[in-house]
Amino acid sequence: MLSDQDTNMLKQQLGRIPRGVLAVIVRSSEDAPVVIVNYPLHHCCEGRDSGEGKGGGIQGEGGERLVPFPTLYWLTNPRLNNTLADMERLGVIDDIQNQINANHQLEHQVANDHRAYIEQRWKQLTKGDQEKIQKSPAMLETLRTRGIGGISNFLTVKCLHLHYAHHLATLCMNPNDPSPGTAVGRLIEQANPELLKIRQSFKFGNN
């Protein structure tokens, strides 16, 4: 449940409130949201956004159609979003992709990060929704095999924002890990060390 303060801050950051926000797990030093967690399903109207081809859908408790929502962790901090967008324009995605392609150990780490994301997403679902999904082959395939941001090829870097949000969320969940965060997140910070300085001021925790 978002506080009124968080709701207002998210409106300022994003221009709207994303559907199905569960919590703020990373904050700036000023307590503004940096990363939010979203429910893995969202309400959908038949037709334009019916979910066909994206894992189908299940019926919610109120009779509404629920379809997969690909973004479990959402980066809301404008400074980070702008910095990552600049990096994408400079070709950093291709640079990171080349590093992964040339290193089998990195490939293994990236694939494992996707698998961890899949498990984290599944655990966010209610037991009732898990049971319904298990009866829907298309939904089950989508939610149990597609990784960060709905990516099917685990070794393809799709978007720096998606990967960095997962990186920060992983730092929140596993602060004492000897290899902190995610493989792609570490490569992003290596490409721009300023990001490491920025995140050192963040507050990690579900609050």
From TrEMBL:
Official protein name in the record: DUF501 domain-containing protein
